[in-house]
């Protein structure tokens, strides 16, 4: 579960930025070089490179060198796996919600917090 959670966090962090979402959208349409992304996004080269690095660390994109150009694509296999992982997690949360979320025992046993605190100290 920790590995899955770590993957979801990495994916969500990569997707939690409008520029990175724009990059993914652009790359879903065609392979692009950094200079093309700079032009399409109206950003500096260091800014685009930073966003590409984060997407690559999340295994959502891949790059390949063609002469002096570095071309970027969505890594389809890893992208599909990432989306399945996130969908599976969200489906699990949805299933739990549909079963009903029980009330906290604190509602009926207010002193339970003190018991839990004392357990944590030992």
UniProtKB/TrEMBL annotation:
Pfam families: HTH_5. Keywords: DNA-binding, Transcription, Transcription regulation. SUPFAM superfamilies: Winged helix' DNA-binding domain. GO terms for molecular function: DNA binding; DNA-binding transcription factor activity. Residues 1-94 form the HTH arsR-type domain. InterPro entries: ArsR-like_HTH (IPR011991), HTH_ArsR_DNA-bd_dom (IPR001845), HTH_MetalResp_TranReg (IPR051081), WH-like_DNA-bd_sf (IPR036388), WH_DNA-bd_sf (IPR036390). Gene3D superfamilies: Winged helix-like DNA-binding domain superfamily/Winged helix DNA-binding domain (1.10.10.10). It comes from the Bacteria. NCBIfam families: HTH_metalloreg. This is Putative transcriptional regulator. It comes from Desulfoscipio gibsoniae DSM 7213.
